[in-house]
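Input chain follows. Return structure tokens only.
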Amino acid sequence: MQALKMNANESTATLDHDSIIDLILNDRIDIDSVAEFESLLEVFPKDPGLYRKFGDLLSAKGRPEEAPLAYNKAAALYLEAGMVLQSIVAKILEWSIAKPSHREGREYHAAIRNNGGGDIPAQLLFSQLTYEETVSLMLRLGRVRLLPGEIVYDAGEEATGIHFIVAGRLKETWPAKTEGAPPAEILLAENDIFGDIFPLEEKSFCRACVTAATDVELVKISKPALKATCYRYPRIREMLERLSRMRVRQGGDRSWKTVRRSSRYCLPADVRLTFSANGNGDRRTIQGTARDLSLGGMCVALSSDTAGTDPDSLLQQKVAMTILEGNRTTIDQLTGTVSWRKKVGSSSRPTHIVGIVFDPMAEETEMALNAFCTISNGEQDMIWNLWNHLVRH
């Protein structure tokens, strides 16, 4: 098996709020093998972020015929999840390699209009644009990547463009209104739009400081480029000005909900893995924590008391899985195959992860798994807080 390439950040990577897949998507864990990535996609065949990352890998390896296919798959899966902005970025990457036909462009624009709408700023904008307006904006979007703590702009700086949040969260800090009062803070998230660019014909200045709270990906249109676009397509300006007025009041809650990935769930859960040790019916049981659980497969972080187990020996092994809550069995009758493994953490305290592809399951098992995975964002945060409390104590 080809070894995973780990970057400098990985030695301190943890399995707290960051899932294994998120660590990969945020470049904290590098997979440099196409075969390795294909194994990962077997476990999570509906994760659009992984397909986009796979496209990046194929592009970097000089495989221009395969990379657009991965980006195309990512764009389609993002649209299925209602993530229009994220789909557009994947489509820009695809079309930067393989120029689309007029028909392909029209069909994609129709798909955007069918899957957009609602009250989420970026979705609302792109779902209402004409084909020509959409293409004009897509051609002018530039990608920006930020690490936690990096500043997009500070209060008082001249505004240089408008930003769309593709992934991650940022903190917008407004100066205190009165002396001695604390500054007001607003959390910006996926699909938000920000930037004090109006009026376009005059200099404008940033009213707040915007800082990356997590790993962040933005797309940006510079003010001169937007001005030229709006001159040709005045409706774009009207919609952006209207969306800018939707911004929440300082310190208030937004009226829309962030679009979340719907095909993967990162909540921790105890799991028991049972392997057949040999052909005589002997069984070996390994405890672990399920991570990145989906209806197609899951990651499992093996417990520290299995340090003597050779993870490579588990590859391609059939396994039966039981998901537990305390001592109570929540989901049983799950079987699958170990498709890949990886190691995270330091060399002195490594954590071994295995990826398991589920076998076809009975209808009642699939319903139970779906119910286990489908919870609200509030419930997710509550469970994470409880989990972290138990780990610390």
